[in-house]
Design the sequence.
């Protein structure tokens, strides 16, 4: 094979790979619903809306667990309603949820608990980067999340993570707003071992449920 043919073949192979990756990352609407019903994905939620008039006051390990709004920022009433609405939509869509993980922050736990999609497992493997020094530092916190997202999820179920915007931004480059979700799939060939499949705003779940859901 001539050198120019090898170069052309390599270029075509790279283009096809990039096209396939772009196609996967562009899943939305019915295609996204079908993919999530088949399972095999990690759905990362940033906690829903919070009361930004409050601040986090952390002086020692474990302070982040407090549900006292005078110590740690908590969900607002709007945030609680948003979490419930997302959960209703997920149940209406009958998306199979195999596991629900969360950071130990009350606002993250409450977000996924109010969704009512499974038993919530809090863990310091998922940590707000503002408190990362208590769990080995930012790099360690980002590495642990990447490992979680890169772990293959067997077909037939999905993993949900409830956590923070700064963590997923550093781990993946994706930065959802409060209540936003980023969906990932394990891929050993991709950087960090996973691919970003789709991003959803809080209201997108209800829209999908209205179009593609099945009433109980």
Sequence:
């Amino acid at each position: 094979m001539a050198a120019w043919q090898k170069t052309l073949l390599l270029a075509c192979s790279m283009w096809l790979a990039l096209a396939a990756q772009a196609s996967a990352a562009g899943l939305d609407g019915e295609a996204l619903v079908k993919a999530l019903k088949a399972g095999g994905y990690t759905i990362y939620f940033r906690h829903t809306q919070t009361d930004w008039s409050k601040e986090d006051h952390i002086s020692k390990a474990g302070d982040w667990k407090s549900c006292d709004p005078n110590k740690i920022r908590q969900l607002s009433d709007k945030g609680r309603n948003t979490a419930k609405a997302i959960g209703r939509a997920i149940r209406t869509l009958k998306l199979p949820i195999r596991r629900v993980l969360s950071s130990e922050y009350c606002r993250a736990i409450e977000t996924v608990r109010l969704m009512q999609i499974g038993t919530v497992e809090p863990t310091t493997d998922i940590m707000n980067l503002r408190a990362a020094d208590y769990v080995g530092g930012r790099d360690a916190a980002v590495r642990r999340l990447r490992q979680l997202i890169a772990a293959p999820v067997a077909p037939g179920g999905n993993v949900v993570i409830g956590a923070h915007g700064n963590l997923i931004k550093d781990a993946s480059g994706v930065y959802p707003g409060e209540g936003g979700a980023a969906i990932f799939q394990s891929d050993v060939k991709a950087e960090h071992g996973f691919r970003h499949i789709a991003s959803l705003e809080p209201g997108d779940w209800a829209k999908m449920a209205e179009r593609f859901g099945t009433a109980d």
User: Anything to note?
Assistant: Strands lie at 42-46, 97-102, 120-122, 158-163, 181-186, 194-200.
